[in-house]
Design a protein that fits this description.
Elements (H helix, E strand, L loop, with lengths): L1 E5 L5 H11 L4 E4 L9 E4 L4 H6 L5 E4 L18 E2 L6 H17 L2 H9 L16 E4 L3 H11 L5 E5 L9 E4 L4 H6 L3 E4 L13 H4 L6 E5 L8 H10 L2 E6 L12 H4 L3 E3 L9 H17 L14
Helix pairs in contact: 1-10, 3-5
Bound molecules: NADP nicotinamide-adenine-dinucleotide phosphate and glyoxylic acid.
Length: 306
């Protein structure tokens, strides 16, 4: 069995040695143009040439949960693409989103500002029952985030493409249910994949359907949100603030107004990072499962885009 690694953004050495450890007997190499045909590929943001040359893949493992970058390439319709399926990302995402939601609900930004001024001033507690948190995307990550948020007893809503049932979450499905879902969210957490259906989903029209004073947490992909519309609605006071981990263009340019907006928290796409050891273990396990003829989780529907 031959496995090729194509990870232009990273040092391939630790990936190669760990894959060799978990797949003894396999030939595992970094891809170079003209390399021998591989049975499996492990890749993040490969060039089109890689796809065009590697025509005998039994599967391509995407080193990440989101496949939007990969799906910008011309892929053979029959290519089996497998994405990372949690691999240590779900708990990180739960941590990040809980932090953002708690920080907003408990007004920690205001307390930090007061502390810098040496002001001892208690603020009135907010009503938990009025603080509805809605999660767009109830997949691997959205489900884990919902489980984590349940501990804090906020009313929870979820929205997905197909109907879902999650304990403690009032679930909505499909485009027709979106206005009703948005109208009830005091906090909107975005955990949708970026697809042709979700690109620019959160523009002015949809953001205006949130109640006045709502808060946005985007940890999915930047292109789901129309940033100029978000800034306009923050300026008008329709939105109270946002925590943003992802942006339409990354890295976010130094001049971008989101960096300096007082109600916006910016992080550099770190809400759920790929963990090398867990990811390699998962990918190697799935390669061995496919070799045995077993099914694996995380197979991407190329037509649907996730
Ligand atoms: P997933 O398991 O594939 O779940 C996707 C969810 O989105 C599903 O519930 C799906 O609905 C829903 N969905 C997709 N298209 C929809 C549409 N048009 N309308 C309504 N719902 C729709 O994905 P995941 O593993 O949870 O990851 C979600 C995304 O998080 C990734 O695609 C990636 O972009 C992002 N991510 C970001 C980071 C970061 O560090 N910022 C890290 C990892 C992942 P169904 O349930 O009906 O299929
Ligand atoms: C990170 O953003 C991922 O998709 O894994």
């Amino acid at each position: 069995m031959r496995v090729c690694l194509c990870y232009p953004d990273a040092d391939p050495a630790p990936w190669l040695s760990a894959l060799r450890l978990h797949l003894p007997g396999a030939v595992i190499e970094s891809w170079q143009p003209g390399a021998a045909m591989a049975d499996y590929a492990v890749a993040w943001a490969p060039p089109q040439q890689f796809i065009d040359e590697q025509t005998r893949l039994k599967a391509l493992f995407n080193i990440g949960a989101g496949v939007d970058r990969l799906l910008q390439l011309r892929l053979p319709a029959q290519l089996r693409v497998v994405c990372l399926d949690d691999a240590g990302m779900a708990v990180q995402m739960a941590e990040y989103v809980c932090h953002a939601v708690l920080r907003h609900f408990r007004e920690f930004a205001a307390y930090e500002a007061q502390a810098r001024l040496g002001q001892w001033q208690q603020r009135a507690p907010r009503a938990r029952a009025d603080f509805t948190v809605g999660i767009m995307g109830l997949g691997v990550l959205g489900t884990r985030v919902a489980q984590a948020l349940r501990v804090f007893e906020y009313p929870l809503l979820g929205w997905s493409r197909s109907a879902r049932q999650l304990d403690g979450v009032a679930c909505f499905a499909g485009a027709s249910a979106l206005p009703q879902f948005l109208a009830a969210c005091q906090v909107l957490v975005c955990l949708l994949p970026l697809t042709p259906d979700t690109q620019d989903l959160l523009g002015r029209a949809r953001l205006e359907q949130l109640p006045r004073g709502a808060y946005l947490v985007n940890v999915a992909r930047g292109a789901l949100v129309v940033e100029d519309d978000l800034l306009a609605l923050l300026g008008s006071g329709h939105l109270a603030g946002a925590t943003l981990d992802v942006f339409r263009s990354e890295p976010l340019s130094a001049a971008h107004p989101l960096w300096r907006h007082p109600a916006v928290q910016v992080t550099p796409h770190i809400s759920a990072q790929t963990l090398e050891a867990q990811s390699i273990l998962q990918i190697a396990g799935k390669i061995l499962a496919l070799e045995r003829g077993a099914a694996v989780a995380g197979v991407v529907d190329l037509a649907r885009g996730y």
